[in-house]
Amino acid sequence: MKMTDDIARTHANHADARAGHSHSEHDSASRFMDEAYWDERYGSIDKVWSGNPNPQLVREVSDLRPGTALDAGCGEGGDAIWLAERGWRVTAADFSRVALERGAARALEVGAEVAERITWVHADLTTWIPAPQSFDLASAHFVHVPREQREPLYRRLAASVAPDGTLLIVAHHPSDLQTTVQRPRFAEMFFTGDDLAAELELDPAQWDIVTNAAPGRTTTDPDGRTVTIRDTVLRARRRLL
Ligand SMILES: C[S@@+](CC[C@H](N)C(=O)[O-])C[C@H]1O[C@@H](n2cnc3c(N)ncnc32)[C@H](O)[C@@H]1O
């Protein structure tokens, strides 16, 4: 298993945020969904996600020629493994060691050739700087961070895309907050493709926006009802200059 550690800083004690002490929405959002929260969430159950690739990844990436890929916020590795099965060499980054170890174990179960194509990186995306212009695909699915961390985080992901490469950002759409599906109740963490495109200021001389959409899909809410939710999908290609 290839694993590197890019977290250089220590984390404060977060217990009070989770215990519900009075904080602003922003403070709660940043402290609630931290590394300890995610390690606890992954550690509380054998498998959090289905293991299947995200549908927007399959839709947006199936037509691309495999090369190098960054899966930022890879979780248990469903997307990274799907990419590696298709020949991509994947850097799979997350700040949850529990998720990374689970992903690496699952990749080995899928096959040595697949596992060999994935490097698992323990990194906090709010500080980690992936190598500029180095990935043919930089992809992030459902990485929701506080508002002021979002723009620099996604700018660094955009900067990591090589010429002729693809940036793919998929997130929960803000309209999900009007549904009965479970979402963190921090409105500032949700964004549309327009929001993100404006924040990233993707220069049209350097970038083509390929997809800016909010496709719907059905899921089940905690009471077992079928609910339509939306994904924010922003896909852009860095032009060959
Ligand atoms: C909703 S899960 C999605 C996981 C995976 N992308 C998927 O779609 O199955 C969000 C993931 O982002 C990770 N994450 C959130 N904030 C992060 C940060 N600042 N640095 C690194 N990983 C982060 C979490 O640990 C979690 O695995």
Task: Name some characteristics of this structure.
Rossmann fold, 32% helix, 9 helices, 9 strands, binds S-adenosylmethionine, alpha/beta, 241 residues, nine-stranded mixed sheet
Quick summary of this structure?
This protein has 241 residues and is an alpha/beta fold. It is built from nine helices and nine strands. The chain has one domain (2-238): Rossmann fold.
3D structure, described in words:
The chain is α/β, with parallel strands linked by helices. The protein has one domain (2-238): 3-Layer(aba) Sandwich (Rossmann fold). The chain contains nine helices and nine strands. It has helices at residues 15-18, 25-32, 35-43, 55-61, 78-85, 97-110, 112-116, 147-159, 193-200, and strands at residues 2-5, 68-72, 89-94, 118-122, 135-141, 161-172, 207-213, 216-220, 226-238. Strands 1, 2, 3, 4, 5, 6, 7, 8 and 9 form a nine-stranded mixed beta sheet that branches. Helix 5 links the parallel strand 2 and strand 3. The longest helix has 14 residues, at 97-110. Mean pLDDT is 89; it is low at 7-23. The chain binds S-adenosylmethionine. S-adenosylmethionine binds next to loops.
